[in-house]
């Protein structure tokens, strides 16, 4: 016997796996996807059959996998009789629906998409019924809402389908969120989310103070899902789904999830008056309203939808009564309803498919055209009406009997039997109408198609279900009793009451109610027949009361008007304002600790600063560094920063109208930064900063070409509002700058306690094999960080490249810049025309020098790279240097000249770099060490002498390659735009000339 | 020297913030570059300012006298990444200018 745990787990994952496979199949593979989906459903059914003997014996099968053990959450599967019965319904009807859909769906519809959604839904629904954990149950619950959304909107080109899907999702998913909250409360009360623990908790939940809250939340979840009044309106709208979906979701499975949950929680939550007073009135209202509205539907599927609502109301009512016998009746009716309603939906789909319309008024006399379909529909409709010798009769009898019993002594309780009989009459009336007006009466004219019975395999699923209605109705003890008692025992356990499934119970009051309902229903139908054949849409009384309209208005309010108001209040499409808000929040966050300090007041703060200044700076000793934390002033560095600060302010001042000036000034600040690094013992940083400074300036210079000319004042700049805005921004900038300066000063003058850096310095050589601690940290101690960073660098470079591939410059940037035009004009007078005139004579002297320097810089790059582990240098610095060697060639010779002579493949360098770095890291794994562990030793290399060969060197080589590739890729990509734009212009001018010629010819 | 470095960081930040709040894309690019100088200097200065103590274990004076290498390592990669971000921003802004015809950060001239 196979392992139960494995089998149950596989059963739950199978539909999702099949869905994934199906989704990837080609659109035309209708048969294969149908086979796959059908076999999946049958496999689940098979597992159910395999489990049947144990389930019949009253066993509960379980499978648990650790999921989030630290939170006490397991992925848990629990298959008891009730869950098993639903598993059989889900998989059995699922298989039939797949078969039906194979013939129903047209070849134009994407079969893989349909079946992938259907399988996904099957898995989600299965997850709901066999989850052994409340959180997991809610997860699958919401998943069913999502898949139902996708399935209802399957024909997404139709407005109605999209609207219906959205409404179903909004209502059921909102209910699911309530359910989630309710489950959290239940878990809190019981102390566990495991269903086993919850179900064995007895009266704990009912007696807890938070029970009403949990009950209301769970009720919201269940009632929305099962389309109970006043949330019923989504179900009729969901009829825009393909009919197989309606047959599956809206009769047998999805809408049953709500009542399934109520039955599941029944043993631990029903023993209270709250339960009765929530579910019985709601159930009764839904039962009556649904049945009443169903009579007046002109759409075949609409009728079935309202009838489903009504039957679900019946089940909710039964569960609300709180007696075990009523629960038995509820479970029995869940099973019966699934069979006859799925069959009816299929019949409705066949009629729609064959006749081309679902409007009952247009149909008529179809019995002669499609006798088999008519017979099947008649059997199922009779079961729906509760005609004796069909399964619907049995559960309806039980229902009538239960309403007569007294549960909570009240007027409402005493009225129930009359309401039930009335609803029974309506039910008979609409069932009768369905049969009479569709299959009998005058033969329909002007049907879009000529109806006839469909292919045998399209009829088979409906026939099988109708046959079951009949068999269960005639021989209940032989067919359904074992199945039902397993399901009932799963819910009620020891509470299971005595009940009888006999067809004939003698002359009971319930039988009398049935007879009254049948007779009254027939009379009602005959009385209403003329009204229904008229042009009037909908019922006489309740037409105005539309939950749908209320819902739509609420949605419009929420998602349109209020959202608009909020957007206008809080949002802006101006990036400038958004950035300003960000900066202000940052400044406030920085000030927060100061403002939050109770002792803080501006006056004392100023006094403190004053006292501190008096004692430190203004005392004569500060120049000679007598204050321990303020180091000696060095006039040279002060001068450097005098320039650096002036450059920064100048850049800020000039960036609008004088971009080149601003760029040069910005470079000045960068140089000051670089000098500071080298001054304060960070040669690696200084080198990196210097090199990055070079490439940044080149990069932005290349970008300047594509920015608009700005040689006249922008008029708006002189307006008062603009001046005020600048003043405000200046204020923000001064606050931000002052704050950061104060913070930096505060840190700089505080004592440095022992840091992790000391540890790294100590270990750098013994463990990393390098004297340059910064480099050892980069390639070894924090190598994983560096790996991430170079990947970011590579990704950015490729993004830049990709963005520029589709780059379209603005029209006014098409023409060559003035300087270039001037040069070309000058050259063309003096020299013979050349292919690339600008480069033939431009920067001739510098060009020669730069070309000569190329090998020198390359050697320098190699040198910086090789010594990086012990002295300033390394992959980043070497890579940047190497990139600069290439960029200089581009500057001197132009892109065409360089690319005629050198093959640069930056993307490959990037790829090689990442692969090399990652492979070096993986190299440690075979030796049993963690990813990126370094090994090193010294080797004698010719020319270089004794060189440390740490495996980190290979990692650093990866960094080198990537930094080189990324830098060169970004710069070349921008540089190439100048060449591209001329090509674009040439093409455009050729086109224009051709067009002009054509015009001339004409 | 600490006050000078602190003021330098402050001025770089202030200039950068002012530029970042400006309407033209080029101003924002320069502003972000200035801010990245400031941030890099700030992180670097978390290891305090030490003259003549580069982080090479062979240098005289022993390990205890060396500068803190960790902020340096952090800043080194930050410098390279900020270059990459400058490049990305530059490309985005020139592409946006190509599409919208405007170098205003909103992509249209009627800014606030």
UniProtKB/TrEMBL annotation, chain A:
<feature type="transmembrane region" description="Helical">
    <location>
        <begin position="372"/>
        <end position="395"/>
    </location>
</feature>
<feature type="transmembrane region" description="Helical">
    <location>
        <begin position="840"/>
        <end position="864"/>
    </location>
</feature>
<keyword id="KW-0812">Transmembrane</keyword>
<feature type="domain" description="MrpA C-terminal/MbhD">
    <location>
        <begin position="644"/>
        <end position="709"/>
    </location>
</feature>
<feature type="domain" description="MrpA C-terminal/MbhE">
    <location>
        <begin position="724"/>
        <end position="821"/>
    </location>
</feature>
<feature type="transmembrane region" description="Helical">
    <location>
        <begin position="138"/>
        <end position="155"/>
    </location>
</feature>
<dbReference type="Pfam" id="PF04039">
    <property type="entry name" value="MnhB"/>
</dbReference>
<keyword id="KW-0813">Transport</keyword>
<feature type="transmembrane region" description="Helical">
    <location>
        <begin position="114"/>
        <end position="132"/>
    </location>
</feature>
<feature type="transmembrane region" description="Helical">
    <location>
        <begin position="415"/>
        <end position="435"/>
    </location>
</feature>
<dbReference type="Pfam" id="PF00662">
    <property type="entry name" value="Proton_antipo_N"/>
</dbReference>
<dbReference type="InterPro" id="IPR025383">
    <property type="entry name" value="MrpA_C/MbhD"/>
</dbReference>
<feature type="domain" description="Na+/H+ antiporter MnhB subunit-related protein">
    <location>
        <begin position="848"/>
        <end position="968"/>
    </location>
</feature>
<feature type="transmembrane region" description="Helical">
    <location>
        <begin position="727"/>
        <end position="748"/>
    </location>
</feature>
<dbReference type="Pfam" id="PF00361">
    <property type="entry name" value="Proton_antipo_M"/>
</dbReference>
<feature type="transmembrane region" description="Helical">
    <location>
        <begin position="910"/>
        <end position="932"/>
    </location>
</feature>
<feature type="transmembrane region" description="Helical">
    <location>
        <begin position="303"/>
        <end position="321"/>
    </location>
</feature>
<keyword id="KW-1003">Cell membrane</keyword>
<feature type="transmembrane region" description="Helical">
    <location>
        <begin position="456"/>
        <end position="481"/>
    </location>
</feature>
<feature type="transmembrane region" description="Helical">
    <location>
        <begin position="6"/>
        <end position="26"/>
    </location>
</feature>
<feature type="transmembrane region" description="Helical">
    <location>
        <begin position="660"/>
        <end position="680"/>
    </location>
</feature>
<feature type="transmembrane region" description="Helical">
    <location>
        <begin position="876"/>
        <end position="898"/>
    </location>
</feature>
Automatic annotation (TrEMBL), chain B:
<keyword id="KW-0812">Transmembrane</keyword>
<feature type="transmembrane region" description="Helical">
    <location>
        <begin position="69"/>
        <end position="92"/>
    </location>
</feature>
<keyword id="KW-0472">Membrane</keyword>
<feature type="transmembrane region" description="Helical">
    <location>
        <begin position="6"/>
        <end position="21"/>
    </location>
</feature>
<dbReference type="InterPro" id="IPR039428">
    <property type="entry name" value="NUOK/Mnh_C1-like"/>
</dbReference>
<keyword id="KW-1003">Cell membrane</keyword>
<feature type="transmembrane region" description="Helical">
    <location>
        <begin position="28"/>
        <end position="49"/>
    </location>
</feature>
<dbReference type="Pfam" id="PF00420">
    <property type="entry name" value="Oxidored_q2"/>
</dbReference>
<protein>
    <submittedName>
        <fullName>Na+/H+ antiporter subunit C</fullName>
    </submittedName>
</protein>
<keyword id="KW-1133">Transmembrane helix</keyword>
<dbReference type="InterPro" id="IPR050601">
    <property type="entry name" value="CPA3_antiporter_subunitC"/>
</dbReference>
<comment type="similarity">
    <text>Belongs to the CPA3 antiporters (TC 2.A.63) subunit C family.</text>
</comment>
């Amino acid at each position: 016997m196979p392992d139960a745990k494995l089998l149950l787990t596989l059963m739950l994952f199978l539909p999702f796996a099949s869905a994934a496979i199906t989704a990837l199949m080609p659109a035309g593979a209708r048969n294969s996807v149908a086979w796959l989906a059908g076999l999946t459903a049958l496999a689940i059914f098979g597992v159910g059959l395999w489990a049947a003997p144990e389930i019949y014996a009253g066993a509960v099968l379980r499978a648990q996998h650790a999921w989030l053990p630290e939170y006490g959450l397991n992925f848990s599967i629990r298959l008891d009789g009730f869950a098993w019965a639903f598993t059989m319904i889900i998989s059995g009807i699922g298989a039939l629906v797949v078969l039906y859909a194979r013939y129903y769906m047209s070849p134009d519809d994407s079969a893989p998409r349909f079946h992938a959604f259907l399988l996904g839904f099957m898995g989600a629904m299965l997850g709901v019924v066999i989850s052994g954990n409340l959180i997991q149950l809610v997860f699958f619950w919401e998943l069913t809402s999502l898949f139902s959304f996708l399935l209802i909107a399957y024909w997404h080109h139709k407005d109605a389908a999209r609207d219906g899907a959205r409404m179903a999702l909004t209502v059921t998913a909102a209910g699911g969120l309530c359910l989630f909250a309710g489950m959290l409360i239940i878990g809190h009360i019981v102390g566990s989310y495991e269903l086993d623990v919850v179900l064995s908790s007895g009266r704990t939940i009912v007696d807890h103070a938070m029970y009403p809250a949990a009950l209301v939340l769970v009720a919201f979840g269940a009632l929305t899902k099962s389309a109970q009044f006043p949330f019923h309106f989504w179900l009729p709208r969901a009829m825009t789904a393909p009919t197989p979906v309606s047959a599956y979701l809206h009769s047998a499975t999805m809408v049953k999830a709500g009542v399934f949950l109520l039955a599941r929680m029944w043993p631990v939550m029903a023993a209270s008056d709250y339960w009765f007073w929530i579910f019985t009135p709601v159930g009764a209202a839904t039962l009556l309203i649904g049945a009443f509205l169903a009579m007046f539907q002109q759409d075949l599927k609409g009728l079935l939808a309202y009838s489903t609502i009504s039957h679900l109301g019946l089940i909710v009512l039964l569960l609300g009564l709180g007696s075990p016998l009523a629960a038995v009746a509820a479970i029995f009716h869940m099973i019966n309803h699934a069979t006859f309603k799925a069959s009816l939906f299929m019949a409705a789909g066949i009629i729609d498919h064959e006749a081309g319309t679902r409007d009952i008024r247009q149909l008529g006399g179809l019995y002669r055209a499609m006798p088999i379909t008519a017979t099947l529909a008649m059997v199922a409709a009779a079961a729906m009406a509760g005609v004796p010798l069909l399964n619907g009769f049995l559960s309806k009898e039980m229902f009538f009997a239960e309403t007569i019993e007294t549960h909570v002594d009240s007027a409402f309780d005493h009225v129930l039997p009359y309401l039930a009989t009335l609803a029974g009459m309506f039910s008979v009336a609409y069932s009768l109408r369905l049969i009479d007006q569709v299959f009998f009466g005058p033969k329909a004219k002007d049907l879009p198609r000529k109806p006839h019975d469909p292919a045998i395999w399209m009829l088979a699923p409906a026939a099988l279900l109708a046959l079951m209605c009949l068999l269960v109705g005639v021989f209940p003890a032989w067919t359904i009793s074992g199945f039902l008692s397993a399901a009932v025992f799963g819910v009620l356990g020891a509470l299971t009451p005595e009940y009888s499934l006999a067809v004939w119970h003698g002359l009971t009051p319930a039988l009398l109610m049935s007879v009254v309902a049948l007779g009254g229903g027939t009379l009602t139908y005959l009385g209403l027949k003329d009204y229904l054949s008229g042009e009037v849409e909908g019922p006489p009384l309740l037409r105005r009361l539309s939950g749908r309209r209320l819902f739509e208005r609420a949605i419009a309010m929420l998602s349109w008007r209020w959202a608009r108001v909020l957007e206008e209040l809080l949002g802006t499409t101006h990036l400038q304002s958004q950035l300003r808000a960000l900066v202000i929040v940052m400044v406030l966050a920085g000030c927060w600790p100061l403002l939050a300090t109770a002792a803080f007041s501006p006056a004392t703060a100023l006094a403190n600063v004053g006292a501190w200044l008096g004692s430190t700076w203004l005392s004569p000793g500060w120049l000679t560094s007598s204050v321990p934390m303020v180091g000696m002033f060095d006039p040279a560095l002060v001068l450097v920063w005098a320039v650096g600060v002036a450059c920064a302010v100048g850049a800020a001042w000039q960036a609008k109208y004088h971009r080149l000036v601003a760029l040069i000034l910005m470079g000045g600040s960068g140089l000051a930064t670089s000098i500071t690094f080298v001054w304060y013992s960070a040669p690696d940083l200084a080198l990196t900063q210097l090199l990055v400074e070079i490439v940044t300036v080149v990069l932005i210079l290349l970008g300047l070409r594509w920015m608009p000319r700005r040689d006249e004042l922008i008029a708006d700049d002189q307006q008062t509002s603009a001046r005020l805005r600048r003043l405000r921004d200046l204020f923000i900038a001064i606050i931000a700058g002052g704050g950061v300066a104060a913070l930096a000063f505060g840190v700089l003058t505080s004592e440095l306690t022992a840091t992790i850096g000391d540890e790294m310095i100590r270990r750098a050589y013994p463990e990393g094999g390098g004297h340059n601690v910064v480099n050892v940290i980069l390639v070894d101690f924090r190598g994983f960080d560096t790996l991430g960073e170079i990947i970011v660098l590579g990704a950015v470079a490729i993004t830049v490249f990709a963005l520029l591939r589709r780059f379209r410059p603005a029209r006014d940037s098409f023409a060559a810049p003035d300087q270039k035009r001037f040069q070309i004009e000058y050259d063309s007078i003096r020299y013979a025309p050349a292919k690339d005139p600008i480069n033939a004579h431009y920067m001739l002297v510098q060009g020669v020098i730069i070309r000569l320097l190329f090998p020198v810089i390359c050697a320098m790059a190699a040198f910086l790279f090789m010594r990086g582990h012990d002295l300033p240098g390394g992959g980043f610095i070497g890579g940047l240097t190497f990139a600069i060697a290439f960029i200089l060639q581009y500057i001197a010779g132009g892109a065409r000249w360089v690319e005629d002579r050198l093959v640069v493949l930056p993307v490959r360098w990037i790829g090689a770099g990442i692969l090399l770095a990652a492979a070096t890291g993986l190299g440690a794994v075979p030796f049993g060490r963690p990813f990126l562990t370094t090994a090193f030793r010294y080797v004698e290399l010719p020319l270089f002498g004794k060189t440390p060969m740490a495996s980190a060197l290979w990692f650093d080589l990866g960094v080198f390659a990537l930094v080189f590739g990324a830098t060169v890729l970004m710069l070349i990509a921008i540089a190439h735009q100048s060449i591209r734009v001329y090509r674009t212009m040439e093409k455009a001018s050729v086109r224009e000339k051709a067009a002009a010629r054509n015009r001339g010819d004409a | 020297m600490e006050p000078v470095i602190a003021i330098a960081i402050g001025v770089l930040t202030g200039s950068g913030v002012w530029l970042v709040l400006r309407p033209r894309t080029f101003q924002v690019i320069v502003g972000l570059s200035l801010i990245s100088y400031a941030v890099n200097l700030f992180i670097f200065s978390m290891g305090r300012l030490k003259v003549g103590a580069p982080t090479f274990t062979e240098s005289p004076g022993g390990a205890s006298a060396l500068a803190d290498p960790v902020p340096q390592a952090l800043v080194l990669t930050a410098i390279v990444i900020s270059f990459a971000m400058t490049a990305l921003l530059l490309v985005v802004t020139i592409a946006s200018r190509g599409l919208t015809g405007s170098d205003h950060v909103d992509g249209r001239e009627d800014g606030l």
